[in-house]
Amino acid sequence: MEIEQNISNTPNTPNVSNTSSLPRLEDIPVSRKVIESLYAHGKLSLEDKNSILNILSTEPIERAWGLWVSWLLLFLGITLILSGITFFFAYNWASMSPIIKLSIIQVGLVTCLFGAFFYSLDNLPGQLLLLCASIFVGVFMAVFGQIYQTGADSYQLFMMWAVLILGWTLISKFSSQWALFLIISNVFLMLWHDQDIQRSNEALNLQAFIYTYLLILNTIALLLREFFVIKKNCLWLQARWTRNLIVLILVVTMFNSVCIWIFEETSLIIFLNGALGILGHGIIFLFYRYKQVDIWPLTIVLFSSCLLVLIVFFNIFLVDAKSSGVFFVLACIALAVFSVAAMYLRMIMKEFEVSYD
Amino acid sequence: MRIKILFICLAVILIAFNYGIYQNEQIKKEGEIVFFQLAPVDPRSLIQGDYMRLAYAVAEESLEHERPKGSQSIVINTDKGSVAHFVRYHDGEALLAGERLLPFYGRSPIVIRPDSFLFQEGHAKHYELEAKYGVFRFDASGKYLLTGLADENRELIRISK
Fold it and tell me: Which residues fall within 8 angstroms of residue A272, CB to CB, at 6 or more apart?
């Protein structure tokens, strides 16, 4: 039924009637979907369908699952090797001299890097090996810190880590490598800020600045990501999760700064953070609702907004509440807010599906 | 170009790593030993996981002195047994012979870093009862490392299998 509708609705499918408004057969791009609907309408036999699909896909259909298994094994293998190395160290900690420990990690690092070189940075194995090498840099510094007990400024580890792998990240053209870099940078900022606060005298006033820093860093990341994907058509960055990851970090940051604004004593920076947080929620919502329709960022930002609405109600009614009836009211508000959000998302989903078809 | 950057970065990383090892090994070998008496952080939970939280007697001694604004280090000297003692808060003045600078973190009581000592899982029992001193080594420029823990006779605690 659905396929039939598609056939009659979309001009891209070949139709028996040769009206001039329809595209000519030569202009219609062959796609899996076209083949499937032709087969569903009995225009193609099963063997024909399979042989066409075989020609269409670079890998024969029968071997697709083999490809999937080999990818799965690749990821599993790398995870197991890395955890093996970790446990090897954990168990033999005291029986190895410091130099041996650090040399083994360096050998691992160099091996990964040469592997990346021989596999070439343009395919997945090479990129994964580069990612491993980057993780080894962090492992080295962690072990180094443990051996020499240099736990003084823990932010230095993450700062050095980020600085040392920056070069590799810039040339990697690999989204996981960038994700690692972004996460390390975020952790660095948080630890550094913590340390900085400890040393200064006006600790409380400065605490909220961390949200400003995080907001700036991740906003830059998101802008760069969208710029390179939308304007420059950057293929390697196109995976959806890269957008979702940054949006998630951003929304969590903004959620926190708005919460602090609601609950804590107000200073200029707390107010500014809170206002930026609300504005940010709005901008992310509008951008992914009207500019680049994408349901995931919308879900994240709507969920956060619903929670914020609840928190505002909580703050107004519940903080000085005397009767338990307020909890009932709050539960009703929660139900209402989340249902409206879910219905709204469902509506956008439907719109999206229609336009996608 | 990408390959060049790939290997230049590798070279930078390896040089940085091995210079760090060299520097710290130098302090460990050549540095002058100073014992820092340990103050129990909390007698009931000295051991947490696979590291030991450390607080030093010099930090407790500092409580009796007033901290000048902007001071970020304390001055210590050592007695005959190489045990460190608090002298004063540093306020920019020049140091006398035998005095050393030690940066501190936090305030009231101040925290001397490293404030933890890491060891292999299961080795806690060796350190828990015996550790009385943190063994630091200072090089000529004042850089220092915590190289181990010592018992009450100021003997380094070694783990024999």
Answer: A212
